[in-house]
Design a protein that fits this description.
By secondary structure, the chain is an alpha/beta fold. About 45% of the residues lie in helices and about 15% in strands. It has 9 helices and 12 strands. The strands form 3 sheets. Strands 1-2-3-4-7-8-9-12 form an 8-stranded parallel β-barrel. It has a two-stranded antiparallel ribbon with strand order 5-6. The protein has a two-stranded antiparallel ribbon with strand order 10-11. About 0% of the residues have low confidence.
Length: about 280
């Protein structure tokens, strides 16, 4: 079953503070939605808070969290969740997503660490996701993450992700770059992995650049242009899922807006191609 209702549509861009002036000046129509990390904006006031409000009033927004630490052995931060709930409502954020990983244990670790692929971890993480969904009073989406080691692995990555999504009854933020990165680092077939994910749970897609450390080691950095194999995998994703809202992430080495819009155009052109194919298929 394919998802027919998405929280946003079209092509998106991850909003970073260094982009705000050029985006406000240009107001590019190529961007259909934006994404922010709520931790960077909760409680921000003054001129910066006003500027952020300008964007949330102009564009539909989704949010991609950094600190929920869903796999952490430490208790969930309920105070943060209460603030998050207010933030999401205040800015009419269309959905909340987080990483299927952890980043804290009695303090933040400043990295996204892999959750062991075990049945015990599935139950633990799914219960925490249900608590978050009950607290926020909405379904959330978990992102398939890049990882460089798999401690205590008893299941494959794809079986672990599918089990968590099913047990928690939550959605999926599909990161195409992370599939590609992991397929190289852990030597699996990216398209086969993609087709094993539950299409009906996908809410939107991430694409990004990465750093090629060695022939068999890629580091997920979001600091470079998207490469051709990732564009090809996105094309295969649309072939499998249909046209899904897709967002470009760029966290550093951020180029001029015109260059970002070229990558946005690549997404848009690919979406238009598959929309035409879908229409032709429906007609006959």
């Amino acid at each position: 079953m394919k998802q027919t209702q998405y929280p946003v549509q079209g092509t998106g861009l991850g909003l970073r503070r260094s982009m705000m002036d050029s985006l406000a000046e240009a107001s590019p129509t190529q961007i259909d939605f934006m994404e922010v990390a709520p931790e960077n904006w909760i409680g921000v006031g003054g001129s910066l808070g006003k500027q952020f409000r300008h964007f949330t009033e102009q564009y539909p927004f989704v949010s991609h969290g950094l600190s929920l630490s869903i796999g952490s052995p430490s208790p969930l931060d309920m105070d943060f969740l209460r603030k998050l709930k207010v933030f999401l409502k205040d800015h009419d954020i269309k959905t909340y997503t987080e990483h299927l990983s952890y980043c804290s244990d009695s303090g933040h670790l400043y990295d996204l660490l892999p959750i062991p692929f075990t049945e015990e971890a599935v139950k633990y993480v799914a219960e925490r996701i249900r608590i978050v969904q009950d607290t926020l009073e909405q379904r959330i989406a978990m992102e398939n993450v890049s990882y460089y080691a798999a401690p205590g692995q008893q299941m494959t990555e794809i079986d672990f992700i599918n089990a968590v999504l099913d047990e928690a009854d939550c959605n999926l933020l599909l990161d195409v770059n992370n599939i590609y990165v992991n397929s190289v680092n852990h030597r699996y077939d990216a398209e086969q992995y993609l087709k094993a994910l539950p299409a009906e749970r996908v809410v939107y897609i991430h694409v990004a650049g990465h750093y090629q450390e060695a022939e068999d080691l890629i580091v997920d950095t979001h600091g470079a242009d998207v490469i051709d194999p990732v564009w090809q995998l996105l094309d295969q994703t649309y072939a499998h899922l249909g046209v899904v809202p897709t967002l470009l992430e760029r966290d550093f080495n951020i180029p001029p807006l015109a260059e970002l819009l070229q990558e946005i155009a690549t997404i848009s052109n690919m979406q238009e191609k598959w929309s035409r194919i879908e229409q032709q298929s429906a007609q006959g």
